[in-house]
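Subject: for your reference before the review

Hello V.,

The reviewers asked for a structural picture of the protein, and I figured it would be easier to keep everything in one thread rather than splitting it across files. Below is the amino acid sequence we used in the manuscript, unchanged from the supplementary table.
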Amino acid sequence: MSDAPNREPDREIRSERPEETGDPWTRLPSMAPAAPSAATAGRPVAPSPGPVLLGRGRAVTDPVTAAAVPPGGRTVAPSPLDPGASWDPHRIHRTLREQFPLTYDPLLRAWVLSRYADVATALTDPRFTHGHRPGDPPCARAHVDVDIEALRAVTERTAYVLARRIAERSQADLVADFCHWLPAGTVAAAVGVPYRDMMRLVRGRAAGALAGECGGQIAVREKALASFLGNVLDDPDQVAALRDAPAGLVARAWAESLRRDPPVQIAVRRTSAEVPVSGGIVPAGASVALLVGSAGRDPERFREADRFDPFRDDPGQLTYGAGFCPAVLLAGFEAEYALRALFEAMPRLRLADGFRPVATGLITRAPRSLIVRPGG
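And here is what came back from the structure prediction:
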């Protein structure tokens, strides 16, 4: 997808406050700033640096950021919640990665990590607590009676039903008409919820019956699927490469989309002990915002990090863990069968003339629409 978003009129840019979700993995905390630990004294902190400005004139005494302040000078760290971040977070992420790998953000009320190495550590290190990703080790212990082939079958069937429903239209929005329904419909079919009751039940009892702690991932899977289809359809060469691709290549393209455009941009953890990271030490008992969207585009980890490349030989994604989980399986199945169903039902499927996918969002992020011409 394009990294140069098409700006909508100002009236469409509403509050830049964090989006509310029911998923504890993506919900931002509401808590007072954590005080830096005395054990961080080993860092080269300038004496009595005073407040450091963070974005829009906000001030906070931050010994990590202050260490980089020249004598008598002040510095400014942007915030992922600054105005305009919903439309173009990547400029802010680059500044944070390069100049402020560890800083305190008063809007997030958390210390911020933006480099791949630090975010990957925080998502797996037991010193970072109070968080959960589908596919992390607890999933393997929670889901022991899942019929994988049954999940595959209901995903395939649901994708083909949805694709056929829009194949005869002159124009369609894949976000509203396909991505919004496939994750919910797959769960509904898996637990036997009638189609007419799908959206009413699937986000509660039905989802929990299938995926337990990961049931709230339906909304995340919707956004991940929208970004994936947007990445593929935005480049005719990718359409040609993936139209009849084997499952292995589709899976690589799916992982690449999760890396480049993760549905969850910011995850929150809390430290149980002091943790050394790039730029300093995170205090014990601190709230930490992990910029997953920034980590996936870290050029220290990925070559041409802003480019969508399903043939990438330096892969990696942070949205899902590597363990077994129905939510992770379903997300992968949905990506695979979405492509197969859409291209089979609409062999000439393409984006509408003049349309380019534009991702928006602060905490979760994806295109709001994907306007396509089913008949080419």
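For the response letter, the relevant points are probably these. The radius of gyration is 21 Å. Confidence is low (pLDDT under 50) at residues 2-74.

Happy to draft the paragraph if you're swamped.

O.
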